[in-house]
């Protein structure tokens, strides 16, 4: 563990200063100047740098995968600030592991460049067209794949319409991928492998659907070539990675490192990958990744128990002003709510995986959520609920309704989300916009106070679920109780009997 005492003035992070970092900080042992790129990654947020980038770094530390270095990329104007920060420190990142038994730091060097952020994405298209790039990976959030409420490709989205009409100057990462694949086919090069690293069940299949669907709008022959020759392996990714703010910047400085973009993370990682990489891949299995032909059971367990569980906690926490997930777990009522919903309404719809039963995984998740060193805000976890409830919670609800199982806890979870989206905590403090569709959600949430069906009528999220009589009645009763007597009273009633709010 790194000694935080007596660090003195922190060292500005760069290639030139690696040797000057405090003794306890791990750093690259490989020659970064000798690395050559093999991966373009779009979306250089904290999760990628704590997860995929770390796995690759660990391989490089073993003398492997030096021809698989990462070139970073982004397609939003807001990505420019991250580009500036990372390029100023030679694309190095400090990872700070927050273990309850102590804190340690490691500087990761597997990323070697960050492409310019520009209209039309010409630099990104050129980079992905290079045959040396064999994998294009993405972390662009769960809601970034242009799907409709049914999960189908949304060909009518304005950004997709733009990219279909401007094939050489696209707005989206997917439009850039299609343009690069067109260039590779014309040059006689094999397609790259598309690797989704977002929390989506069947994430590789969803990425394929988006890329092929967009290509088909403008070039059906290219779409057929991509669909036949390109690979989009499914994967399950797992590591709790908080946002970086003043606290995290100061933590890095206390460890002796002046890093403009450090990343904190828990002392747990998992990566389960479908082994379908016709253009080759790094030997990730050498550093703990699981390569398999069937990733679905793993991703179903993780997405349902961890990701859906996060939503169970975070919406209640936001309404009640509980600042972090660990603090939610220290709140006896909120922690009990999570455990009851998970045990009775989520775990029954999760199958075991080799070496792990669903109830054992739930116990692991509860320990991870309770880690007091992880300052993971309820706001971060509740962000983009329109995608996260749709992707994580509602599929469980559909299964429970089909099986005739209990849904009171899931109905209460949805009612808490609706109450959160009204934009104000119970103490009167405002909840700042926290969803790409925040304005519409606030309007629906405020209308639902008097007419609960308004919330469930958002078919882009609920589809036919909102028309289920038993669920809609339960939702309406819970939402009414929350508005009338508060979230604590609703949680109390649920924990007392698990029945409807009238109990």
Automatic annotation (TrEMBL):
Domain Mannitol dehydrogenase N-terminal: 38-285
Record keywords: Oxidoreductase
Signal peptide: none
Domain Mannitol dehydrogenase C-terminal residue range list: 294-479
Record-linked InterPro entries: 6-PGluconate_DH-like_C_sf, 6PGD_dom2, Mannitol_DH, Mannitol_DH/Oxidoreductase, Mannitol_DH_C, Mannitol_DH_N, NAD(P)-bd_dom_sf
Upper lineage: Bacteria, Pseudomonadati, Pseudomonadota, Alphaproteobacteria, Rhodobacterales
Superkingdom field: Bacteria
Protein name: Mannitol 2-dehydrogenase
